[in-house]
Amino acid sequence: MSEDVGRIRTREDYRAARKHSIEDPEGFWAAQAERFHWHEHWNEVLEWDFTKPDVKWFVGGKLNITENCLDRHLEQRGNKLALIWEPNDPKERFVRLTYRELFERVCRYANVLKHHGVKKGDRVCVYMPMVPELVIAVLACARIGAIHSVVFCGFSAQSLADRINDAEATTVLCSDGMFRGAKEMPVKSVVDEALAKCPTVKKVIVTERVGWSVQMQEGRDVWLHEEWEKVDGNCSAEVMDSEDPLFILYTSGSTGKPKGVVHTCGGYMVYTEYSFRNVFQYDESDVFWCTADVGWITGHSYIAYGPLLAGATQVMFEGVPTFPDAGRFWQVVDKHGVNIFYTAPTAIRSLMAHGLDHVLPYSLHSLKVLGTVGEPINEEAWHWYKTHIGKGRCPIVDTWWQTETGGILISSLAVVTDERPSHAAWPLPGVQPILVTADGQEISDNEVEGLLCMKFPWPSILRTTWGDHERCRQTYFSHYKGLYFTGDGAKRDADGRYRIIGRVDDVINVSGHRFGTAEIESAINEAKGVVESAVVGFPHDIKGQGIYAYVITEGPVADAEDMRGRIIEAVVAGIGRIAKPDKIQFVSGLPKTRSGKIMRRILRKVAENELNSLGDTSTLLDPKVVDEIKEGRL
Ligand code: WTA
Question: Could you tell me if residue 128 is inside a domain?
Answer without folding.
Answer: no
